[in-house]
Task: structure prediction
Amino acid sequence: MIYVIEDDRGWEDYYRRILKSYDLEFFHDGVAAIAAMDEVVPDLVILDILLTGPTGFAVLNEMRSYPELAKVPVLIVTSVTIRDVLARQYGVVGILDKGKMMPQELLEAVQEALA
Amino acid sequence: MESEVFGASSSAVVVAHELKGPLSLSRQLALSLEFEDSLAGAREIGRQIATTSERALRQVEDLTRVARLDDALFEMEPVNPRIVCDEVVAELWRMFRFNRRELKIDYRNKRRLVVANRQLLHSVVYNFCLNAMNYGGEELPSLVTIYDRQGKIRIDVRDYGPAVPTKVWREIKNGFVKKPVDIAMRPGSSGLGLYIAAKFANYMHGGFGLVRHRDGTSFYIDLPVSGQLSLV
Result:
């Protein structure tokens, strides 16, 4: 199960198309996603940074504070520029720029994170 | 343009980021065509690309208009607000659908015409609606309402976003919107759309403001009623 935390719903169909062989669950804010993780711990989280409500970094902080969620791989897909150093601090498996990435890169990053 | 429009360098970053969203999505959608097997699916992607691109184009047009407000190019005239709101809803319904949202309109006004510039009023309502789309309720439609209020006609658009801080509410109420960041008060919002709406409302001598609800906000514009009778 992959949780996609993305508040711009225009991206949903895109993710479904590129990652059609995966089981995706969409969340439009971090609070709902964290709450859902109480029920099902995802295999991977695809996370936007600029969200309505708590930012992606707040979601990461929250996840890393729970032992059962601390090891869940997180792939950041965002429009904002993020320093690799900062992302490494949070232990994310990759950062993709929404403006520059190729769909194949997204697919490969997901495959790698779940390998 | 940056200094003429906003008088603040950080605002160029706001504009760039605001435009990057729809442009990135358009590019990704175009690239994703290779992953689509059906013709119907490809057509749907094409429609979403067009809709998303139109959004970016409109933002660029609006910013150009903001920069040219001082040239007094936009004449005031009697305008039927129902027709303008209908046009905006017709323009945006597909974008709302792609975003799994719904946009509705409710007419409650008896008086028919306002004094406004049709293009600018269209942009004000459009930007209110885009804001509402970003902060829609899970099951609740965004609602455009037109009604008479204290000798004017008010057009408001309701959203279900996070609460607007009191400081920002006061700044908007007192007309202190100088640049987008002044009203970038909610996560995920650059404030650009509302900044544009505020500038256009001010140009048309319309009241621009917001009403805070327990579960969201209504942004509104109040416009003077035209003495001319509507023939529509």
